[in-house]
Amino acid sequence: MWPLEGVKVLDLTQNVAGPYAAMILAEFGADVTKVEPNSGDATRSWGPPFWNGYSPTYLALNRNKTLVSLDLKTPDGKQALLRLLDEADVLIVSNRPAALKRLELDYDTVSKRYPQLIYAEITAFGHYGPRQMDPGYDPLMQAMGGIMSVTGHPGDEPVRVGTSVIDMGTGMWMAMGVLSALRLRDKTGQGHRITGALFETAVGWMAYHLPAYWASGDTPHGWGSGTAMIAPYEAFPTTSGWIVIAAGNDKLFRDLSCVLGHPEWSSEENYKSNAMRVVNRVHLHEEISAVTSTQTSDFWIQLLVDAGIPVAPVADVAQLMENPQLQASDLIQEAFHADIPNFKSVGLPLCIDGMRPPLRTVPARKV
């Protein structure tokens, strides 16, 4: 038995953040009904590539849901939605406030009719401030929230994190908020309003960059594959690719220095503490790279693993699929799909009592 069995969720959202939140709830056993417009969720057209006509984005975010297509601007569509709401525990929305008001799906209207409903809304900026009525998308928030400024190499053009960390992060926060609200409703008997904001998720991911700015007055910037406050903690070249070495404390750096054939590094004034290594990180990176670039990734990984030094290859997706650690898990799940032979999907990266939530229902065809 999964923890949310018996909980009914209506997912009125599109794109990434809302569908991801609803999918997390579905993974925990909730009965999630995705309500799409007759034209379908916008992500259905995101591509190429397409997998036998299906967008990979749509497939990734809409497993374990049932699908209903409704035109909420028509009386019939509105009545059908109200019938669904009569049985629902949770409603997830992500339209802009004006659109919700026109559809009579704003919180004030819905909560009067359904006082026990958990009303979960994903917004761009929340319900305050000068931009509360504006739309928002993942790259805009990575830009505004400072994420791009600490990503990539110093002086290069802005770089977006290569996955939708703002959208998916907001979806995760929303799922946690819904779980908390359901627990609270058990105590109060009343519904509750949960609001998430893409902009605030972006700022939340800057949680340690902001204190660094407050402490120093210096604006943080990107360090390529590295991080601002630890060195060496980044990618280094080899003859066959790249490896990431994470020597995050003085002992690990001493061990790394020995493995690389330069035990004297750990006693040099410029490298004897993490603070000094951060200050002198550029020269340190050059020295380590000069050594690692003489052998293959496999060679260094074996030596460093044997020495207890955290290391990993920089893998592409094809290499990831060959990773024995991934193959040992059941994270990649398979199920029958009428249109996609050998359908696979990425499960929830979480287990309960050693069991991962299963893939029960593949993402639905457009109705």
UniProtKB/TrEMBL annotation:
Signal peptide: none annotated. InterPro entries: CoA-transferase_III_domain, CoA-Trfase_fam_III, CoA-Trfase_III_dom3_sf, CoA-Trfase_III_dom_1_sf. It holds the Pfam family CoA_transf_3. Keywords: Transferase. One of its GO terms (molecular function) is transferase activity. It comes from the Bacteria. This is CoA transferase. It comes from Alicyclobacillus dauci.
